[in-house]
Amino acid sequence: MELKQPGTAATGPTRVRLRPAAVLLAALALLGTGCAQASAAPAPAAPASARAAAPAAAGARAAVRPPRADTRALPGSAAAARAPGGRHRARHQAARRPVARPAGPDAAGRCPATLGRIACVDLSRQLMWVQVGTRVVFGPVRVRTGRAGYVTRTGLWHVYRRNRDQWSTLYDVAMPYSQFFSGGEAFHGLDGESMYTPPGSHGCVNMNTWDARTLWGILRSGDPVEVFGRKPGT
User: Is the distance from CB of 143 to CB of 121 less than 8 angstroms?
Assistant: First the structure.
């Protein structure tokens, strides 16, 4: 860009060469104060409804939490009992629970469950077993108890003597794996005769020899023996 300066008649007009940067500054100067005022003018204020909604939106973002697990009460829980109608349902479910009964063959609870390991003899059913608490650890197995006039004594006894190869001099018969608990009455095996053969023993609790051998490995001296019931026909 060149600007002509008035000169003398002899020399003619004087040409002035301006740099590009100067040209730009000159153009801005020609625009005047308008650009400065436009750049410095404040931005128009946001509507009042927008200003009121901004804090609410920020609070909503702050209140966002990760999704929680399903906390609906399961049936029978404490939360379910607190729910409307929950107590009625809890009582109904409790009423449907079966009543606890002694485990194993002693459904009537005749054999003590508080003496640890104990041998139980049910004369009425001609059965015997060994239990620890209410848990049966041997049997029940078929036995043959005393006949009329030689009834096996009922009550709580204890094993006081054991003899693997006992021989009865009174009845001249072998009594393998004998475990005595009341006078001359003992658990012992009996070879060659069924437990169903009448009329019965002379007071001992006869067993098959293999059952007597297994019982020998379970009981120890001092273990309690409970005899209860009554043998049919005695």
Answer: yes
Per-residue pLDDT tens digits for 118-167:
999 999 999 999 999 999 999 999 999 999 999 999 999 999 999 999 99
Where do runs of H (alpha helix) occur along the chain?
20-31, 33-40, 48-62, 78-82, 86-96, 209-216
| Cα separation, 161 vs 41, whole angstroms | 116
- Of 199, 177, 173, residue with least CA distance to 186: 177
Query: By the 8 A CB rule, do 165 and 176 touch?
Result: yes
* Distance of alpha carbon 193 from alpha carbon 168, whole angstroms: 16
Per-residue pLDDT tens digits for 27-42: 555 555 444 444 444 4
What are the angstrom distances between the C-alpha of 222 and each of 24, 27, 33, 95, 157?
120, 122, 119, 42, 9
The answer to whether the beta carbons of residues 126 and 228 sit under 8 Å apart is no
Q: Are 222 and 159 in contact (CB under 8 A)?
A: yes
Residue 66 DSSP code: P
